[in-house]
Design brief:
About 0% of the residues lie in helices and about 50% in strands. By secondary structure, it is mainly beta. The termini are far apart.
Amino acid sequence: QVQLVESGGGLVQAGGSLRLSCAASGYTFSNYRVTWFRQAPGQEREFVATINWTGGSTLYLESVKGRFTISRDNAKNTVWLQMNSLEPEDTAVYYCAAQIPTIGRGWMKAYEYVDWGQGTQVTVSS
């Protein structure tokens, strides 16, 4: 299955920006929905944003809507998460996950994904 590697995390002041990348291997990447999740210490993994295989449909966690933008370039086998106006509450390890659409399978819960990257730490200071 597709292999994913996240990068771009770091330490940023509140109000700042980061751009996360999710690099995928395999020519089948264009068939996958890709979703960003995040997990803070002691918390469950939380849905952040998702993008369908064409890039024509996106959906966001309400608290990041208008601040984060998910995009993809299948020719580059890459999905990005542009994060603006970052808040301390955004601090977490961010993961990308990929899913081949399956009848009856959802896409907003972490347990619905098999293919995950290793995660990248985002820390937002106040």
